[in-house]
Structure formats: C-alpha cells, structure tokens
Amino acid sequence: MAQKTFFAVKDLDGDGKHYCAVAFESKLAREAFCELNGYEPVLVKWAIDNLVGSVYNDIRHYPNIIVDNSLRKPIGFVLEDGSIS
C-alpha cells in the first residue's frame, strides 16, 4: 500500500504566487504544524497543479523539508516539536 502524503503551504506575499511548501507522513503532524506556523493544508491535486515539479518531488520524497516554490530550494526543516529550523 502506498504511503499517504499530506501537504501544507504558506503564501509568503499574499499574491498567490510565492509559496513555501512542506509535506508530512501524518495528517496529525500536518495539522499541528499548520496551527503553529500559519501554513494551510492543501490537497494533493492542489500541490501537483500549483507547485513546481522539482519542489513537489522534493517535499514528497523528503517529508519535513520546507521548500520555497519560487526559489526552488530548501529553506528550512520542521523539527519534532513542529517548529521550524
């Protein structure tokens, strides 16, 4: 059975174009992170349609890495307590 992945994004400048994105292996972990850090949960289809392919693949294969969708590079990591390093 395939591993489920749960995505979250944060619109950095309010224009709907500059996102940071992260994925989680647990829905509960995603919910806790979103609440703590102001990210929004998104569906897999939204992630596929709106994130650069390399960013989508990075966060899907390496959960807890936060990737800037515009810069296409990692900018942080989610720690066990849900904070960002």
Structure description:
With 85 residues, this protein is α+β, with helices and mostly antiparallel strands. 32% of the residues lie in helices and 28% in strands. It is built from three helices and five strands; from the N terminus they run ββαβααββ. It has a five-stranded antiparallel sheet, with helices on both faces. The longest helix has 11 residues, at 27-37. The chain is globular, with a radius of gyration of 12 Å.
Helices, strands, pairings?
Elements: E1 6-11, E2 19-24, H1 27-37, E3 40-42, H2 44-50, H3 53-61, E4 65-68, E5 73-77
Antiparallel strand pairs: 1-2, 1-3, 2-4, 4-5
Main sheet record: 5 strands, antiparallel
Judged by helices, strands and strand pairing, the structural class is: alpha+beta
Total helix count?
3
- Helical proportion? 25-40%
Spatial sequence of strands, sheet with the most strands: 3-1-2-4-5
Distance between the termini: 32 Å
Order of helices and strands: EEHEHHEE
Query: Taking Cα atoms only, what radius of gyration do you get, to the nearest Å?
Result: 12 Å
Beta fraction of the residues?
Answer: 25-35%
Count of strand segments: 5
